[in-house]
Design goal:
The protein is mostly beta strands. 14% of the residues lie in helices and 43% in strands. β24 and β25 form a beta hairpin. The protein is extended and about 100 Å long. The two termini are 64 Å apart. The relative contact order is 0.06.
């Protein structure tokens, strides 16, 4: 029968160096394994012996080469005196002493580390692979290397210096450069550590022939046009890595690699091969959402991620809308086909095309429409982009029993700035600014020709309370949003109802149903719509534990019948909500109430969706 296990607790005395204390804590098996099943006396004695070596290595990694580790095992106070109360962890009789103890006792293991003198770096030499010929570093190489005589002999710094120099040499165009692990010479009398780094620099080289492997459906010519490195360019790992990441960002590959051989080509260049593993070309998804004003929204999507082999993405979506909802009179639909084509008509710009059929049965109007859109998004810099395009719409709108048909043409253009640095629109921002300035010149036909333009500015910013030192990064964030819109060139009744401005809902003022803010037809909850809009939001977002969070917010805004914003009746809503954070974004549930509810307005609103509202 195996000996019974001995439970114990471990305590490590602080050394006064918080980083060293953290290293000792993470190195100790006694500490990390104490909550597992109790082990027998001989296994526990072995664990104690192993900790001496692990903790000594931690001391040496911080430059304490004369340090000493002491481990003491003690019985609880008041234990029987027939067996001695404590024993040193290095005592040869430790296993037998442990075996003599009652298994009902919980032992205390105390660890104390004496650091001794801190060793400093002595002579630091860089030599050729023969360990004899000195290698003189240039000033930029020396700056990357960073080690100087007299600095603390911290192991992580010693290793990092070699890695940094290796990277710097390769970045200078030496693909075969290599900095080996240094040979260390301990000098106890002077408390110094001498280092000898063997270095191979090798010749400079340009990128040679670039090979592509693993492209089954993707057009190699498209990949080569997309590539940001080329043959004849100086071999620099940072630019090769940037090219790899750019290809991976297309979304059609599950893996992209870049590798080079271990020797140069006969012409002195360094060949380069990009390896690809293509992702699934077809995916099927579901889409769902709910709010008390717009009701339920549910449907399915089918996506082809590489339609013609040039990373074109075709997305087909069919949704049922208006399932319930205080702003709805019945079920509607939204069916569309989206085609996205990257690098069209050139690099740094993408084209998108959409054909959409919609039916919306709002209380304000009933609409059935066919819409065609084409647009280009051009990346101006890392944070700036602009978009422009053309759209046409043929629609039929019924309002108060009067049915009219409209033909409209639009030419939207926008300028956008984003410094939030989030990986996707669904990821919550914790810092930075988003700004969008847009103008949409439009023409409406069939009931006389009306020309008008919708001008709109949206801005949001985010402030992390970690900047004030009162929370962990990304845990407590204030978010602010502002919206200003104006229709120029036409009055309210000169433009179709769906082109007017409306307030209420998640996009403007929560607590009021969609189209519930602004001019209303007398004695009804039918919205007329307006030609000016302004709204603002203050929201506080707090994360709890790993996946949970909450938010509180206040929204305010107004819709006016003139083209100048900041006219009309100001409506204010407030609310709170819960968040559950998933890998693709937070699931959001918000409840909001109007603080100055209009006649026939809703008393509260519920919103469920994916991602933050802004």
């Amino acid at each position: 029968m195996a000996p019974a296990g001995l439970p114990y607790t471990t305590k490590i005395d602080p050394t006064g160096n918080s980083d060293l204390d953290a290293a000792l804590t993470s190195s100790s098996d006694l500490l990390s394994l104490q909550k597992t099943h109790a082990v027998g006396p001989f296994a526990l004695a072995g664990r104690i012996r192993n900790d001496y070596a692990r903790l000594t290595t931690a001391l040496e990694s911080f430059g304490y080469y004369d340090g000493q580790v002491m481990i003491t095992v003690s019985r609880p106070k008041g234990a029987s005196t027939s067996v001695q109360a404590s024993m040193d962890g290095q005592d040869i009789g430790l296993p037998l002493w442990l075996a003599s103890l009652p298994t009902s006792e919980t032992l205390t293991i105390a660890i104390k580390a004496k650091t001794g003198p801190l060793y400093k770096l002595g002579a630091v030499q860089t030599v050729a692979a023969d360990h004899k010929t000195p290698v003189v570093l240039t000033p930029p190489q020396q700056q990357a290397f960073g080690l100087k005589t007299g600095a603390p002999a911290v192991a992580s710094d010693v290793l990092a210096a070699g890695n940094n120099l290796d990277n710097a040499l390769k970045e200078e165009g030496h693909p075969l450069a290599k900095v080996d692990i240094p040979t260390a010479f301990l000098r106890p009398t002077s408390h110094t550590l001498d280092l000898l780094y063997p270095i191979t620099i090798g010749p400079k080289a340009d990128i040679g022939p670039i090979g592509l492997t693993g492209l089954d459906y993707t057009n190699p010519r498209f990949v080569r046009r997309r590539m940001t490195v080329s043959s004849g360019q100086l071999y620099q790992p940072s630019k090769i890595e940037a090219a790899r990441q750019d290809l991976a960002s297309l979304g059609i590959f599950s893996n992209v690699g870049a590798k080079s051989p271990d020797k140069l080509a006969p012409d002195g260049s360094m060949p380069l091969t990009f390896t690809f593993k293509e992702a699934k070309r077809h995916t099927v998804g579901a889409e769902a959402g709910y709010s008390t004003d717009l009701g339920g929204r549910v449907g399915a999507t089918w996506t082809h991620h590489n339609l013609f082999g040039n990373a074109e993405r075709l997305k087909l979506t069919a949704l049922i809308t208006g399932v319930g909802g205080t702003a709805q009179q019945g079920l509607g639909y939204d069916v569309y086909a989206d085609l996205f084509k990257p690098d069209f008509p050139g690099r740094h710009q993408n084209a998108s095309f959409r054909l959409e059929g919609i039916r919306q049965l709002f209380y304000s109007y009933r609409q059935t429409a066919l819409i065609a859109r084409a647009g280009i998004v051009r990346q101006l810099s890392r944070r700036w982009n602009m978009s422009y395009g053309l759209a046409g719409e043929q629609e039929k709108i019924d309002q108060f029993g009067v049915t009219r048909s409209y033909t409209l043409v639009f030419a939207p253009i926008s300028l956008n700035y984003d410094s939030t640095d989030v990986p996707s629109p669904l990821a919550p921002a914790t810092h930075g600014v988003r700004v969008s300035l847009s103008g949409t010149p439009s023409a409406s036909f069939d009931h006389g020709t009306t020309f008008f333009a919708l001008l709109q500015a949206n801005a949001s910013t985010y402030f992390d309370l970690a900047n004030l030192g009162i929370s962990a990064p990304g845990r407590s964030v204030f978010a602010f949003r502002g919206i200003v819109g104006s229709v120029q060139g036409a009055s309210t009744y000169d433009i179709p109802p769906d082109q007017r401005l409306y307030g209420g809902g998640t996009a403007t003022i929560r607590g009021f149903r969609y189209q519930g803010v602004g001019p209303q037809f007398p004695h009804s909850k039918y919205a007329i719509g307006g030609t000016s809009l302004d709204a603002g939001t203050v929201e506080f977002r707090q994360r709890f534990f790993k996946n949970w969070g909450m938010a509180t917010f206040v929204d305010a805004g107004q819709v006016g019948s003139g083209s100048a914003p900041f006219t009309g009746t100001v409506r204010v809503g407030a609310g709170a909500g819960a968040r559950y954070f998933t890998p693709i974004g937070p699931v959001r549930v918000d409840v909001a109430v109007p603080l100055n509810r209009p006649p026939r307005g809703d008393k509260w609103e519920l919103y469920i969706g994916l991602g933050e509202t802004f």
